[in-house]
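Our example pasted here:


***
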Amino acid sequence: MIIDFMIHSKVGDVAYKDVAIELLKTKCLPRVYYELEACPINKITYDFVIHSVFTKIFVIKSYNVVNECITSYNCSMFDAIYKKLLQRS
């Protein structure tokens, strides 16, 4: 919550969403990918986390709109991530 406020106060409303998504992609998702290799989780859990993050950032509730945001910001869902992990192995 404090970090959320700090980012928002520094970059403002316009860039806040872009900064939050970029932080998600560069800091959070790589850790999740690493953990998927070490301790696999199910598809529902991963997809729920991604959807929840995008729902909070964009303050939207529509499932289709959330999916569109995920696609436009190039954040992969579980199926795409799992395929990449299998190809690396």
Q: What stands out?
A: The chain has one domain: 2-88. The chain has a mean pLDDT of 75. DSSP finds four helices and no strands in the chain. The longest helix spans residues 2-38.
